[in-house]
């Protein structure tokens, strides 16, 4: 199949359903001489951390190419663009505003609004200023309060230019990958760090939400969480899968709705416990205008005597980054979250696939990625049919970019980037996405 199709009567075929593309500052911008260093600059400079030893110094050079990139976004016919703000670009070390950095984003936001593209702004997509990491980063409770100041600065500067604010992108990745297993910046390793960092991130989210409610009450304010649903290898492994689910997934959503961490917190040794102050859960559990959900794959677990749970290698089929393609778990995830929590309107803020693209005669015929999108759009539609209140869907990503520890080796774009020439070439998946979106707009 060469196009994306949904049932004619689907909510996702209505003009009110929001389709977008997503990026993040560090992954696309470059332009590093105009901003402070962040933890990803430092991590990239550490030998052995990035698969191709690359960094974000140039990336997609979006900092200089932003106008052409917004033309590109417009040409895809999308309703919305999800971007993130680089904290070290807009705030100086003494907490004053970096006016040049703010002016950059204001130009971007104005250009989007002029084209009727809704800006969905993520305030923190992992690029913590290095000077804050030098004081402990997310292991330091103070960082949550620094985040609050940053949110106040940004919201004052941006005024009414933004459609939606998300406080954090995927606190699981920041906390677990960054401070527990160390495969992401800042690369700290230790079971005693993960849940402490997670608690300060969630606190930052709550404090940020309070600022958003005050300074920006008319935007859709919320958080973006990622989920990798956990399945048992056999029925006997159900407890192991549930434990993993609590540890990796529920840990980040339950406090927001239930003012508590999952019960497995009682099984963690004291050294791994977060430091919870009185009133923290009241701050964390701010009402949300929306919940952003990022989904790529599922994981399978078996019981392991020592480690409680062990993750199995993903079975085929997988994408180029090794993640299993298993779309029905997307539907299961959405219906399960809907059953467990009183969800606000949901936006799928990321979904997509890394594939080994080849440019042939100036074209990328990425039927594998197109197939991934087709199956996952249908999975979202199934969840809507089962009552989940989903208002939008963002493809990850607008264009190929710096894929964190994988560097530039993995391509997630619906637009191909030739890093030598910085040319952008819309892949066939991108053309199909455009056609899905624009045919819907043309409906009577
Ligand atoms: C998510 C990140 C995003 C991108 C995708 C592939 O975890 O939010 O920046 O790297 O994975």
Automatic annotation (TrEMBL):
Keywords assigned by UniProt, alphabetized: Carbohydrate metabolism, Cellulose degradation, Glycosidase, Hydrolase, Polysaccharide degradation
InterPro entries to which the protein is assigned, alphabetical: GH, GH_1_N_CS, Glyco_hydro_1, Glyco_hydro_1_AS, Glyco_hydro_1_beta-glucosidase
A Pfam match: Glyco_hydro_1
Residues the record lists as binding substrate: 27, 125, 169, 296, 396, 403-404
PROSITE patterns for the chain: GLYCOSYL_HYDROL_F1_1 (PS00572), GLYCOSYL_HYDROL_F1_2 (PS00653)
Catalytically driven reaction(s): Hydrolysis of terminal, non-reducing beta-D-glucosyl residues with release of beta-D-glucose
EC number: 3.2.1.21
Keyword tRNA processing: no
Major enzyme class: hydrolase
A Gene Ontology molecular function term of the record: beta-glucosidase activity
Family: Belongs to the glycosyl hydrolase 1 family.
Protein name: Beta-glucosidase
Species of provenance: Thalassotalea euphylliae
């Amino acid at each position: 199949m060469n196009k994306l199709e949904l049932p004619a009567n689907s909510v996702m075929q209505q003009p009110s359903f929001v389709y977008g593309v997503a990026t993040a500052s560090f992954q696309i911008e470059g332009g590093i001489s105009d901003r402070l260093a962040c933890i990803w600059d430092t991590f990239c400079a550490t030998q052995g951390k990035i698969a191709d030893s690359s960094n974000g110094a140039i990336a997609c050079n979006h900092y200089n190419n932003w106008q052409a990139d917004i033309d590109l976004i417009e040409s895809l016919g999308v309703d919305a663009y999800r971007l993130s703000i680089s904290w070290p670009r807009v705030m100086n070390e003494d907490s004053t505003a970096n006016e040049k950095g703010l002016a950059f984003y204001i130009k971007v936001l104005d250009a989007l609004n002029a084209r009727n593209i809704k800006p969905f702004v993520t305030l923190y997509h992992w690029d913590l200023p290095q000077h804050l990491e030098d004081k402990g980063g997310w292991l330091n409770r103070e960082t949550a309060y620094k985040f609050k100041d940053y949110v106040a600065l940004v919201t004052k500067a941006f005024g009414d230019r933004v459609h939606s604010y998300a406080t954090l992108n995927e606190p699981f990745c920041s906390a677990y990958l960054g401070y527990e297993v160390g495969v992401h910046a800042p690369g700290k390793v230790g079971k005693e760090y993960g849940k402490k960092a997670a608690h300060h991130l969630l606190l930052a989210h709550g404090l940020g939400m309070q600022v958003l409610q005050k300074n920006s009450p008319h935007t859709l304010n919320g958080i973006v969480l990622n989920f990798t649903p956990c399945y048992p290898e056999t029925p006997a492994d159900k407890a192991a899968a549930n434990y993993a689910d609590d540890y990796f997934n529920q840990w980040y959503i339950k406090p927001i709705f239930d003012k508590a961490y999952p019960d497995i917190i009682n099984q963690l040794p004291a050294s791994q416990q977060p430091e919870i102050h009185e009133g923290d859960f009241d701050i964390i559990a701010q009402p949300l205008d929306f919940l952003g959900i990022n989904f790529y794959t599922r994981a399978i677990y078996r019981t392991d005597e020592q480690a409680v749970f062990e993750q199995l290698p993903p079975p085929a089929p997988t994408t180029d980054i090794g993640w299993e393609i298993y779309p029905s778990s997307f539907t299961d995830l959405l219906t399960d979250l809907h059953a467990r929590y009183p969800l606000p309107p949901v936006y799928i803020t990321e979904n997509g696939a890394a594939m080994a693209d080849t440019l042939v005669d100036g074209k990328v015929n990425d039927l594998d990625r197109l197939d991934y999108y087709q199956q996952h759009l249908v999975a979202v539609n199934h969840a809507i049919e089962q009552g989940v209140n989903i208002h939008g869907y963002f493809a990850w990503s607008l264009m190929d970019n710096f894929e964190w520890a994988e560097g530039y080796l993995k391509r997630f774009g619906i637009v191909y980037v030739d890093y030598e020439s910085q040319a952008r070439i819309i892949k066939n998946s991108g053309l199909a996405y455009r056609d899905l979106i624009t045919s819907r707009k043309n409906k009577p």
